[in-house]
Amino acid sequence: MASKKGGKKANGEDLEAAILRWFECEGEPANVQSLTDALGSKFGKQLVQNTLEQCLKEQKLLAKDIKKARFYFLASPAPGSNDEGSDVGSHKIDLVKQLRQLRNGVSMLSSELSVLLQAQTSSKRATTIASLVSECAALRSRLQALHVIAGKESSCVSDDVSLLIHRYKRARELWRDRKRITVCVIDAVLGDSCGPQELEDIFGLSTDEQMNLCLSGTALTLPATVSS
Known about the structure:
The protein is mostly helical. Helices cover 68% and strands 5% of the residues. It has a two-stranded antiparallel ribbon with strand order 1-2. Strand 1 (61-66) and strand 2 form a beta hairpin. Helix 1 (2-26) crosses helix 3 (45-57) and helix 2 packs across helix 3 (45-57).
């Protein structure tokens, strides 16, 4: 039993020496978790915390609570160190405070930047609207010009339509004349001795009835305004 107690005491002394040596070498504040990790998990977290509190009571270390975490740092310079090293711990704490202030400042600047970006977007939107209004006015002017041109060309279009209708009617008249002349030639040459089937087989001629065609069935329906 005595040997076990001696082992624990040596373990605690070794841990205290390791903690003080770490602070002397690193010269920066640390909490229980970060110090336990830095020591390579050689000692338990609870033992590290107890040793830190013991060093705090003996004024070998100082502590500062930041939010829910307690940071420990050296209370006095280690033997052989200069005066600058004695203020390293408090200097780190001041740096943490300054960092928070800088974060708050960045947050405020970010909010102001968002407002400025929104204002720039509104200005850009107004510029876009003005450009679209200008384009719309130009399109309306173009449309009016096209209406004027269409009015001037309407008479020419009417003349073209009349010419097309005249050509259409002339083509149908030529169809009637061709059919009438063809029938007359067949009657004069062959008479009644050659029927429709023989005309198709021998001469390659087909009647409208055989092809299911009629002149009236192929006629186009013309508008009442131009059919006359």
